[in-house]
Design a protein that fits this description.
Blueprint: H1 11-24, E1 27-28, H2 30-34, H3 47-60, E2 65-72, E3 75-85, E4 88-92, E5 104-105, E6 111-114, E7 117-123, E8 127-134, E9 137-145, H4 151-159, E10 175-180, E11 183-188, E12 191-195, E13 202-204, H5 212-220, H6 225-228
């Protein structure tokens, strides 16, 4: 495991853990679509499930970390992890549906390439803005406030996250994404997009929702039955 060769308190160590998570735990909204309650965080899920999984892992290896709330399209509906390393604060957007594989420093702007997409941060007076450029367009991905909700309030938001009064970016249809080998795969509705560092994005369209289980198995090696078997 790559993470074992780095100092536990280093940025590279934490980022190696993040990369492993993006490979092993997919982002998806299957629980939301099928009205299922998450029981196994290793099966992935939305930002809340993936963030809780990573937060628990960091706590086990005794890295100072906290649940942190953030804004998407001016709604405080996103969860991530704030981490303290050598007295500096970083943000791990591990629950993002896109490959946010690097830590975002609170006090320094960064820009990096992830599978042909560009992440860039801009520091504001009370928050950190994260932008993602992909498919020829630049998107405001997340606004991370420096002062977050309390842990208890975030957990309450997580427990109530499937409230029908809340509209998420993935409310309208299927979302499933994961790093698979040397590519980042993003499945939205009937289209699978395949991103890589050295090739143009490839898109496979016209995938029937009736073949969802087959599609997830074929491209992500994911068994959808594990989601369907969970309790209501």
């Amino acid at each position: 495991m790559i993470s074992k060769i780095f100092n536990k308190m280093s940025v590279k160590y934490v980022e190696s853990l993040m990369l492993e998570k993006f490979k092993k735990e997919p982002f998806h909204n299957l629980y939301f679509l099928f009205n299922k309650k998450p029981e196994n965080l290793s099966l992935g899920g939305t930002c809340s499930d993936k963030t809780l999984s990573f937060y628990n892992q960091l706590r086990r290896v005794k890295i100072e970390s906290h649940l942190h709330s953030a804004f998407i399209k001016k709604q405080e509906i996103h969860r991530l992890v704030s981490i303290t390393l050598n007295n500096k604060i970083y943000y791990a957007d591990i629950g993002n549906g896109w490959p946010s594989i690097k830590l975002f420093p609170k006090d320094r702007e960064i820009k990096y390439n992830a599978y042909g997409m560009i992440y860039q941060t801009i520091i504001k007076s009370s928050s950190l803005d994260v932008y993602l450029s992909r498919d020829g367009k630049k998107y405001h991905s997340v606004e991370i406030p420096f002062h977050s909700k309390k842990h208890e309030d975030i957990m309450e938001d997580i427990n109530n996250r499937f409230n029908k009064n809340i509209t998420y970016p993935f409310t309208g249809g299927i979302r499933f994404s994961q790093i698979v080998q040397d590519h980042f795969l993003f499945f939205r509705d009937d289209t699978l997009s395949i991103y890589s560092y050295d090739h143009a994005v490839k898109k496979i369209s016209g995938i029937s929702k009736n073949n969802l289980a087959k599609t997830l198995k074929q491209y992500f090696n994911f068994d959808m039955e594990k989601i369907l078997k969970t309790n209501q």
